[in-house]
Amino acid sequence: MSISSMDKIMALAKRRGFIYQASEIYGGLNGFWDYGPLGAQLKKNLREAWWQDVVLFPCGGAPGPSGEPVRIVPLDTSIIQHPRVWEASGHLGGFSDPMVDCRETKARYRSDHLMVYAPASGDRGGKPLFCFLPDSPSEQKQKKKAEKAFGEVITIPLGSVPREEFASVLGPDAEKVGSLTEPRAFNLMFKTYIGATATEDDVAYLRPETAQGIFVQFKNVLDTTRVKVPFGIAQTGKAFRNEVTPRNFTFRSREFELMEIEFFCHASEAAEWYRFWRDTRMAWWKSLGLAGENLQLREHDKDELAHYAKDGAGTSDIEYRFPFTAPGFGELEGIAHRAAFDLTQHQKFARTNLEYFDAERGELLPNGSRKGEKYLPHVIEPAAGLDRGVLAILCEAFTEDASRPSPELMKIHPRLAPIKAAVFPLVNKDGMPELSEKLYTELRARFYRSGLIEHDVKQAIGKRYARMDEAGCPYCFTVDGETRESQSVTVRDRDTGAQERLALDRVGDWLAEKLGAP
Ligand code: ATP
Q1: How far apart are CA 104 and CA 442, in angstroms?
Q2: Among 55, 199, 383, 391, which lies 20 to 30 A Cα-Cα from 135?
């Protein structure tokens, strides 16, 4: 897919009420997006699919590596936490993202986002290195310049360029060489004030991730439920990052929603739980229709790993090939072995013992019981972006077919489709609307928990089908001239356009089976 297909997806998303620019009538706000009626329902369906498959019925009842059912409990923690939480987590201190400023253009970039075109031969011959921001106009512009200077070029991260060579780097949009500063620590958290006085003592932050709320409540969850390690705590919720260059539609926003699991286990079992979650989460995205070549699992190299994951069992990303990253991929979900980093930090900063007492470990006693073992559990964290998930679903669903009355259609997986079915009378007369209204009312009463059911009587039938195709509605039931006589309707499949006849009294069960609904 090319960039122009992304423009088409964005146009459709706006036109059909999936996603709008936030504060659009005021000219918009960079990095913020609103979900329209169809988008809000799609997002809710994806969040609920996650909740069902993670919290209510983890992994469809399949056992984890220990052979026991996977245990997960939910949580819902505050967006604003005690500021010390962010000191302990490293967000306020030395682990903040390094930023690079351009002295000439005044642009600021995240250091780990910048790449450089360098000569394949390794010999610059006194010429500059050409720095660019992937997926921005600077990428092509700098590539041309680099190829002119060196012939064959390779790309390397700016982070791998030695500091003393920064003076020879041409910034992404700069005219003069050497305008980029060295990377400097900078945190992406939004600052706010608690209470009316708004002094520096009242500073607080909007959470940049939901994970820390989970670690901070780890002890309470242990003390108030009957969970035993290994178990997970899951939550969904908004996160805020003051991204330096929000871009690519909702992909990099400043306000977004996360769906995170912190799975606690004994250090000796971390490697197998890591593999289990990596594979389970990959299979989950596939089950929602991201099943083709556009989805991949990528294990991180050691030098890419975050501070908390350096010595762990590994980190991998589930990545989707978005139109704006193609032929490359963009992260959808990260699965990281965080070891005992977070609990260790909070134990230290909050001066509270967060150790878990595991009665089933330790030395075997003469009476056949165990002595027990105290430890800080290790954590495997599958952290998925809900907004990036919705975007991947929209990109995957977008299909062009010039031979159809609806040249653009959205093949959204039925489980996620915001509109589950539509009911039409073929024409708005001859008793048909009364029959279709009755069917609509019945279906709505039965399926409202799964999503929307629509009734539409206006316009030519082809136009109504086309509208539903664009909205991603998988099934349309039409009452026609034969319905009264034969007590049957037609059902049209969105993806093939094929129609078949179905007895009126079977419609509900037929739809339930297709949607996997009760
Ligand atoms: P990136 O490298 O793209 O900034 P990250 O590695 O910082 O992402 P994590 O901290 O692992 O991201 O966050 C978990 C998930 O949150 C990501 O997989 C992604 O789906 C989502 N996410 C992160 N940043 C953003 C953002 N600015 N806008 C939308 N979603 C985001």
Answers
A1: 65
A2: 383
Q: Which of 331, 379, 381 to mutate to test the pocket of ligand 1 (most atoms within 8 A of CB)?
A: 331
State the helix-helix crossing angle for 37-51 and 386-397, rounded to 10 degrees: 110
- Nearest ligand 1 atom to the CA of 253 is 28
* Residue that has been written with the tokens 């029959």 in this structure: 435
pTM for the model: 0.86
Q: Whose CA is nearest to atom 19 of ligand 1?
A: 385
Q: Please indicate whether residue 119, judged by its CB atom, sits closer than 6 Å to ligand 1.
A: no
Using the mean position of ligand 1's atoms as its centre, give its distance from the Cα of residue 89 in Å: 17
Q: Ligand 1 pocket, 219 CB below 6 A?
A: no
For residues 313 and 271, is the Cβ–Cβ distance under 8 A?
yes
Distance 112 CA to ligand 1 centre (A): 13
For tokens 């048909």, name the residue: 432
Q: What is the pLDDT of residues 252-302, one digit of tens each?
A: 999 999 999 999 999 999 999 999 999 999 999 999 999 899 999 999 876
Tens-place pLDDT, residues 53-87: 999 999 999 999 989 999 999 999 999 999 999 99
Structure tokens that stand for 488 in this block: 């049957």
- The span from the first CA to the last CA of the chain, in angstroms, equals 37
